[in-house]
Amino acid sequence: MTIPETRFWKKKIKYALLASKPSGGRRRSPPNQHQHQIELPNRYYLTQRSRERLEEEDDFDSPLSKADWVITIKEKLEQVPQNRGSSSWLNHCIFRVPRSLKEIEIKAYTPQVVCIGPYHRGKACFQDMENHKWRLLRHLLERTGHKLELYLEAMSELEEQARSAYAKQSIEIISQEFIEMMLLDACFILELLRVSVKGFIYCGYSWGDPIFSSRGTLPCIQRDLLMLENQLPLFVLDRLFALTCEPEETESVSQLALQFFDTIIPGCKTATFKLDEPGLHFLHVIRQSLLPASKYTLGCITIKQNHQPQLMMHCVTMLRSAGVRFRKTNTSNFTDIEFKNGVLSIPRLVIHDSTKSIFLNLMAFEQCYPHCCNHVTSYMSFMDGLINCPRDVGYLRHHKIIDHGLGSEEEICR
Predict the structure, then answer these.
(1) Is residue 92 left, alpha or beta, with left meaning phi > 0 and alpha meaning psi from -120 to 50?
(2) Residues 324, 329, 333, 335: what is their CA dihedral angle, to the nearest 10 degrees?
(3) 3-state SS string over the chain?
(4) What is the H or E stretch that residue 229 is in?
(5) pLDDT digits (tens, 9 = 90+) for 326-366
(6) What's a Pfam family in this record (predicted)?
């Protein structure tokens, strides 16, 4: 019995004693049968001395003695899970977005159409898409002629490794449900990638399919698949792809993913030469495609170091008044920013409805994952400094540095 439990029962005992004790020399009427019904453990059988001591105590909320206080703290420490070592935390690559970030722009980090992985699993709003996942799995089994047991066995072998990619919340799912989740999500994603390359008719889906039609939910699915909390480990996709791919399919899952996301991140499909390092998940693969081929600093974007210098950036209007000119560079690498001979050269940035969500999730990944630098965060800080008013946006748009399909320049400034 812990100290807090002891204090609780002492308080209950005292109240029971006071309720039954005569007051003012007059005999109290018997209490109602439903009052003061207290079941005490046998270990709390009251001796005469215990009764006298309880009646003498007036305040059960008084501070603990030093010895009891130390015991209470030790009991709390014993309830803390044993430290499994820093290596277990370093294996995490799919994180919960920190609350400090999520509270500012919760919609940017929360999937709206499809749930991938354990973090948002079971929500009623995703039930329709879950039904489509089962439809796609059945279609895949019919097309390949494989038995379901083959895929389940492959996913079972990856369960422990896949669980370690997530934070603690995923462990609450029992083994069979976790394996089922991996298979459904992996099948759904791979069918999306195949259809994006070969076409839905070639893959056996009808024209106007609610998932694969460009007029359907595909753009929303693309956005959801690039949210940090909505990722599936890439090695899970690689394993299922190896079992289901056809002989003529020579591209990797990462290469197919870059082609799939090229419609919302123009130019990323040309960055396959940067995929020498194995990707962790889709968000990580997209980040790799946006970074310079070299690991060193390019232009004015600085890599995270022990003593990182702070960069103060003035807005376009102020820089123009100081004689700085702007020019668009013909590169898909958004960090290829250069200032030379009074000319600031910046790559083209395409902005649409999903751009904000993509960059916010990339920044959240950089903040959570200890093995990467802060290229995206530095770039966004740089652009945030450049743009201070609609006039800044208009000037960059005039020079084709910014290409946006939003309603107005004011939307970019927000």
Answers:
(1) beta
(2) -10
(3) CCHHHHHHHHHHHHHHHHHHCCECCECCCCCCCCCCCCCCCHHHCCCHHHHHHHHHCCCCCCCCCHHHHHHHHHHHHHCCCCCCCHHHHHCCCECCCCHHHHCCCHHHHCCCCCCCCCCCCCCHHHHHHHHHHHHHHHHHHHHHCCCHHHHHHHHHHCHHHHHHHECHHHHHCCHHHHHHHHHHHHHHHHHHHHHHHHCCCCCCCCCCCCCCCCCCCHHHHHHHCCCHHHCCCHHHHHHHHHHHCCCCCCCCHHHHHHHHHCCCCCCHHHHHHHCCCCCCCHHHHHHHHHCCCCCCCECCECCCCCCCCCCCCCCHHHHHHCCCEEEEECCCCCCCCEEECCEEEEECEEECCCHHHHHHHHHHHHHHCCCCCCHHHHHHHHHHHHCCCHHHHHHHHHCCCEEECCCCHHHHHC
(4) none
(5) 999 887 677 788 999 999 999 999 888 899 999 999 999 99
(6) DUF247
Nearest to 231 by CA among 286, 289, 299: 286
- 93 contacts 284 by C-beta, under 8 angstroms: yes
Length of the chain: 414
Which tokens go with 191?
A: 């069918």
Give domain limits for the chain: 3-22+34-78, 88-290, 316-413
Q: Which helix (H) or strand (E) holds 141?
A: helix 127-144
User: In angstroms, rounded to a whole number, what is the distance separating the alpha carbons of residues 409 and 414?
Assistant: 9
The pLDDT tens digits of the residues spanning 365-412 come to: 999 998 888 999 999 999 999 998 989 999 999 999 998 877 677 777
Burial of residue 242, with CB atoms counted within 10 A of its CB: 0-12 exposed, 13-18 middle, 19 or more buried = exposed
The dihedral sign for the CA sequence 218, 224, 230, 233: positive
**pLDDT tens, position by position, 231-274:** 999 999 999 999 999 888 888 999 999 999 998 988 787 776 55
Query: How far is CA 364 from its chain centroid?
Result: 8
